[in-house]
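User: I'm writing a short methods note and want a consistent example. For Protein Wnt, I'll paste the sequence; you return only the structure tokens, no commentary, since I'll be parsing the reply automatically.
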Amino acid sequence: MKLSLQFLLAALLSFILQMGICYGIKWIALSKTPAALALNQTQHCKQLEGLVVSQVQLCRSNLELMQTIIQAAREVIKTCRKTFSDMRWNCSSIDLAPNYLLDLERGTRESAFVYALSAAAISHTIARACTTGDLPGCSCGPIPGETPGPGYRWGGCADNLNYGLIMGSKFSDAPMKMKKSGSQANKLMHLHNSEVGRQVLKASLEMKCKCHGVSGSCSIKTCWKGLQELRDIALDLKNKYLSATKVVHRPMGTRKYLVPKDIDIRPVKETELIYLQSSPDFCMKNEKVGSHGTQDRQCNKTSNGSDSCDLMCCGRGYNPYMDKVVERCHCKYHWCCYVTCKKCERTVERYVCK
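Assistant:
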């Protein structure tokens, strides 16, 4: 009898966790798509991992877009890990796509960042692909209506942000608009954070110019509107991650809304990342809560930031290691036209968390 009760409780817990799961970022598993898959026939869409039915349908009607989306998935993984390399949570679990741990399956602060970055990345990659001519369905962005100023003229090829936003949101938001894709609270949270990612992307559009003139005088500048690099957009989103607001799903009138947990006298701001579930401290390995721990992570002995040995190692201490590094040195340029270098060896001290 006791065993049956334990089994029922475990099953109930599993069901509750499953109800909170949303499938919105499982498409990042596209990063594992083999290069040998040509993606030139609609039946190839079924071979792609991590897609829900509506995304498979989008794939079939937009085959030419899929290589760009696959590239976006790779950019999300690379950028996320780079952006959080100095934090206890270093986005390492994103490599497990589509079978995430609870740090990304629940409505955590970490999942808020990944949803926002994913939405920004897919639109960013599509907009850039239009500019480079890699997508037959789009071209350069429109010429701005305003005058650029004396000595400036519009030209070049602007990033097609509008097309990137339209197609990117269709694909990345499709799972959250399914009826059976997790709790309503999670869907609202993920849709909100995805839109925050796109807002940061829009704000990154800036004027870029190239000089023209006799002997490099730069008497005329040809300008266009271009997006910042994804790494810069990710840093803006990281700041929003650090100041994210915890919310609750609360009835207001005849409907439920996400409102700040501690200061629910105001609505959620459109510019802030939000989360439903508190995160662990990520100090110790515990897959039940989605924590990889920081044991064996490298730390910075001289830093006072999040990568410091005190914070990264959670007070457990660290071990010093001496590594020998071989580098090119004493390089000389020879006319014409090659460089010769010697090889130098130096000792580097590393610090690794206990």
